[in-house]
Write a structure and sequence with these properties.
- This protein has 13 helices and 8 strands.
- It has an 8-stranded parallel beta barrel, surrounded by 7 helices.
- Strand 3, helix 4 and strand 4 form a beta-alpha-beta unit.
- Helix 2 runs parallel beside helix 3 and helix 4 crosses helix 5.
- It is globular and about 75 Å long.
- The mean pLDDT is 92.
Length: 283
């Protein structure tokens, strides 16, 4: 299982640095297109994305078919949501709105099979994204072969970060900088982080390291992702489909239209051409 889990394998190799993308738009072709870009993992976002349960199942299978790890962000810390994501074959789960160590322990109970947790066994779909793994092998290896990620994005989680990091079964502390900023009174409004927010992020990363957990963070673009990687984060997002698609298309259209001067010249040429046709013998 661990050999098929590209994300986990990368985390445990060298510096542990991994890069991933965010899928918010539904569709297996969308999922495959993102996965083929070379990422280690793709988050299928059922919290804020336009992705329902059926679309999540299709995306997980599509991403895994490309040799990339599907990671599902569930909508809330609810056991049935965790079960649906893992039963679809997700290589990892990311859970938002964690507040306390008890919340983290509740997640572990839902994500792990007995005796560690209380996850039920029986999905015929969970083994699909792990190549030739049998159901029995999945049952025996899943507790140590899947990645459990808590999102640190609330004031309470920041205050309880030491206790959360000590919970067995939690693998990654993932920073949601935008919500974290909102919750500690320093929202990111123009792309700039307040020093207090930067200090909070650094603290989370430090606590993760102290407790032998991996640290992750959401980045809005490639240059920011590079900065976070240089700071030592191991799970770093690079792009989000719903942001990248219009950004590229807008840029391409702007290039095609050219500069203001170029556009003005084209308009002038059109006007001259029209005038010439009106005064021609055939006009």
């Amino acid at each position: 299982m661990q050999a098929a889990n590209r994300f986990l394998k990368a985390l445990r190799t060298g510096s542990g640095l991994t890069f991933g993308a965010w899928q918010m738009l539904p569709g297996s072709n969308q999922a495959r297109t993102i996965a083929r870009c070379g990422f280690d993992w793709v988050v299928v976002d059922t919290e804020h994305g336009n992705i329902d349960d059926s679309a999540m199942h299709e995306a997980v299978a599509a991403i895994a078919s490309c040799g990339v790890s599907p990671v599902v962000r569930v909508a809330a810390n609810e056991g049935w949501m965790v079960k649906r994501a893992l039963d679809a074959g997700a290589h990892g789960i990311i859970v938002p709105l964690i507040y306390t160590a008890d919340d983290a322990r509740k997640l572990v109970q839902a994500a792990k099979f007995p005796p560690t947790g209380q996850r039920g066994f029986g999905s015929p779909f969970a083994i699909g994204p792990f190549a030739n793994l049998t159901a029995s092998e999945y049952l025996q290896q899943a507790n140590g072969g899947l990645v459990t990620i808590v999102q640190i994005e609330t004031k309470e989680a920041l205050e309880n970060i030491d206790a959360i990091a000590k919970v067995p079964g939690i693998d990654v502390l993932f920073v949601g900088p935008y919500d974290l900023g909102n919750n500690i009174g320093h929202s990111i409004l123009d792309g700039t982080m307040h020093e207090t927010l930067k200090e909070a992020i650094a603290r989370i990363q430090g606590v993760a390291k102290e407790n032998k957990k991996y640290s992750g963070i959401y980045a809005a673009a490639g240059d920011q992702a590079r900065q976070f990687a240089d700071q030592g984060f191991q799970m770093v997002s690079v792009a989000t489909d719903v942001v990248a698609l219009p950004a590229y298309m807008t840029s391409a259209l702007k290039t095609a239209k050219g500069s203001y001067v170029h556009s003005a010249l084209n308009v002038a040429k059109g006007a001259l051409s029209g005038a010439a046709k009106m005064t021609s013998p055939q006009g």
